[in-house]
Amino acid sequence: MDRNQTAKILMKDEKVLYTIKPCKTKLVVSSLLTMVFVIGLSFLTFLIPAEEGDDLVAKNMWTGIGVGVVAVVMILVFICQLLAYRNRFYTVTDKRFIIQSGLLGIDFASVPVEAVQFLSVNVSVLDKMLKRGTGSVTFGTVSTPIAAQNQATGFRYSDIPNVYENYKVFKELIDNAQQSKE
Prior knowledge:
Layout: E1 16-20, H1 24-43, H2 56-86, E2 89-93, E3 96-101, E4 107-112, E5 118-122, H3 125-130, E6 135-140, E7 155-160, H4 163-181
Helix pairs in contact: 1-2
């Protein structure tokens, strides 16, 4: 089954230039690091000394249950992220930038090429450590402006491979759309 359903929402004369699938390795590594960190912090409650008169067995039992609940929740979140990854595609057409996403169903978000006024590239420490050339490109428009210090919001192609090459293609497409508009 082809999970990329972008063709269903294309306009009559719209042409797909290419489709990008986000890097799965970065998703898995960042999720596992987060899981280890949160479960590790939860486990630190075992190290809190019991006060005099406290039932040490009961304290350890409840702490263990708490850590177990946190671990189960983190594993469920990880599974949901993997399921959502299956439906995530970034499509570049001659008219729009499209994001397909969804955990069980398929959702779409798009921005017209000529509406984009700002592009930002973000390469995180994890992107650098993985040495896969991944990063994120954030698109800013009049309706979804982004400040340099707050690039987490807005329309974003996250964890894409060859981020700098893709940035150049996006920028050229936007510049050409702006010139033909004038």
